[in-house]
């Protein structure tokens, strides 16, 4: 409830000539030394922090409200005016509040599931890779010998040259040579060589 009250103060303090909204609701009164300028200065400082942290702009007001809510719980309102200008426990609590809100917002953004309305680019990327492999596989059937096809297939599967040599019963040098020739043939066939 207190955050709602401060939200009213924040929106009223946004313009110079605008009258300030009353900070009275649900038996909450503003202390005499809490000025609209202090609220405006804290809001501006928070906005700079949200921008520097690259938080989405549509979340800035909510984040600022969370900072004010934490300040209301932990810092006497009479200290808010001097909080930005003097070192002390209140200033450290202000920085802790900003940091906690920033981190909570960043974590919340990171772990949000995709809604059905948003496309999943992972499928598109997997489709592209699959299409490329199909193209290479067709080219391999057209221009490579069965032995070269097998070497390329094993190499693409993550096998090392010595492992392929053991599998095919030959030397690593021979496998390396065949692999090089096969890749050159595929590059030429697919027009990758310049």
Automatic annotation (TrEMBL):
Gene3D superfamilies according to UniProt: Winged helix-like DNA-binding domain superfamily/Winged helix DNA-binding domain
Domain HTH luxR-type: 141-194
SMART domains: HTH_LUXR
UniProt record, GO biological process: regulation of DNA-templated transcription
Top-level taxonomic group: Bacteria
Protein name: HTH luxR-type domain-containing protein
Gene source species: Fimbriiglobus ruber
């Amino acid at each position: 409830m207190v955050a709602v009250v401060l939200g009213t103060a924040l929106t009223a303090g946004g313009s110079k000539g605008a009258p300030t909204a009353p900070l009275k609701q649900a038996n909450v009164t503003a202390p005499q030394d809490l000025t609209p300028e202090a609220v405006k200065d804290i809001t501006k400082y928070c906005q700079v922090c949200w921008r520097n942290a690259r938080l989405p702009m549509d979340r800035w007001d909510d984040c600022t409200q969370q900072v004010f809510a934490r300040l209301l719980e932990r810092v006497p309102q009479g200290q808010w005016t001097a909080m930005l200008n003097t070192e002390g426990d209140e200033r450290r609590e202000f920085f802790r509040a900003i940091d906690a809100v920033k981190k909570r917002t960043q974590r919340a953004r990171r772990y949000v599931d995709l809604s059905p309305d948003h496309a999943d680019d992972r499928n598109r990327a997997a489709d592209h890779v699959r299409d490329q492999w199909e193209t290479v596989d067709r080219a391999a059937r057209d221009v490579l010998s069965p032995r070269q096809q097998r070497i390329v297939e094993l190499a693409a599967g993550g096998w090392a040259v010595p492992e392929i040599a053991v599998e095919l019963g030959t030397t690593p040098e021979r496998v390396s040579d065949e692999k090089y020739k096969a890749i050159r043939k595929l590059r030429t066939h697919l027009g990758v060589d310049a």
